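Project outcomes to date are best conveyed with an example. Our students and postdoctoral researchers have been running inverse folding experiments weekly, and each run begins with a structure described purely in tokens. The record below, which covers 140 residues, was selected by the lab manager from last quarter's runs and is presented without edits.
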């Protein structure tokens, strides 16, 4: 069994509505994302000797995650305060991306896992919010 990972970087702004510290304020992160795929090697053909072609991982992650989320204000659609900011940004033609949960590293890691799991045989998602803080999400 092999484990391979492809790493990505993208920027988002967010707030954590109701946080008891500085993260209740609008701020941004350069997120680092690792997408891990586990499996055996392909025996024959164009992908021989690979678990998965890194280029194929990149194509899927770009479409499902990076294109909609990079340089967006990511917000919790259940938070009236965050929706108010998103509505203003939308009026100003600025990029937003809503998810129905608080935008913690934990919940975004699980959200990204769920967005990708039907398209890639992923085994784990690791999401860094800062260089010193990350969450790993896996289902087994
Ligand atoms: N378990 C979690 N704790 C916190 C989260 C989170 O998603 N999960 N998020 C935040 C804030 O978003 C905050 O921006 C990050 O906090 P912190 O690591 O304290 O940020 P710093 O910029 O100070 O990071 P350093 O690398 O320590 O400089 C808070 N908590
Ligand atoms: Zn933050």
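After processing, the design step wrote out the following sequence:
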């Amino acid at each position: 069994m092999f484990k391979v990972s492809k790493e990505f970087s993208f920027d988002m702004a967010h707030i954590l509505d109701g946080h008891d510290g500085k993260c209740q304020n609008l701020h941004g992160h350069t997120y680092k994302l690792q997408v891990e795929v586990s499996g055996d090697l392909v025996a024959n053909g164009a992908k021989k000797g690979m678990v998965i072609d890194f280029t194929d991982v990149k194509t899927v992650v770009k479409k499902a995650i990076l294109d909609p989320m990079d340089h967006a204000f990511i917000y919790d659609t259940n938070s009236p305060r965050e929706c108010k900011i998103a509505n203003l940004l939308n009026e100003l033609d600025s990029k937003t991306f809503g998810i129905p949960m608080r935008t913690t590293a934990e919940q975004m890691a699980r959200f990204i896992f769920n967005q990708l799991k039907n398209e890639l045989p992923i085994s784990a998602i690791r999401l860094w919010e800062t260089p010193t803080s990350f969450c790993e999400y896996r289902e087994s």
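The radius of gyration is 17 Å. The longest strand covers residues 2-14. The training component of this project remains on track.
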